[in-house]
Write a structure and sequence with these properties.
Helix content: 40-55%
Shape: elongated
Order of helices and strands: HHHEEEH
Number of strands: 3
Number of domains: 2
Strand content: 15-25%
């Protein structure tokens, strides 16, 4: 608990320092041509300042950076892995429209096209086609 209070105190001090820095940099009457330069300067300075480390054992709260072992999955790597499972002659796409998303796998020149909401739905169909089944569009 004391460690958590120390962290909260350090975090509050960090936020106060950033607020003071922004007040120093952002002056009334900045010209529109100066704002992008000031914004870049501020971004670089903030990026150099590291926020205090959260106490060990504390769960990921909203807005906190994940620990090294808790990195979110790499979407591109997952897509490459799935494409490798399908076979190198399949083209894999991920589509989004509104709240809907789906995967599409296409195999040319045979003209096979498979759509499914996720990999678990896509893989069995593609495997069946790879084994010699499936109809052409």
């Amino acid at each position: 608990m004391a460690e958590e209070n120390g962290y909260e105190r350090e975090l509050a001090e960090y936020e106060t320092q950033l607020a003071q820095y922004l007040q120093e940099k952002l002056k009334p009457g900045l010209s529109s041509s100066t704002i992008p330069l000031v914004a870049r300067s501020i971004a670089k300075e903030i990026a150099r300042r590291e926020p205090p480390e959260s106490p060990e054992g504390q769960g990921d709260a909203e807005g906190e950076r994940p620990e090294e072992g808790d990195k979110p999955p790499d979407f591109e790597a997952e897509m490459h892995e799935l494409q490798a499972e399908l076979g190198e002659d399949w083209v894999l796409r991920f589509s989004v429209q509104g709240d809907d998303s789906w995967l599409t796998a296409e195999k040319e020149p045979e003209g096979h096209r498979v759509e499914a909401p996720d990999a678990q739905g896509l893989l069995p169909i593609v495997e069946a086609i790879n084994e010699g089944g499936g109809r052409r569009r």
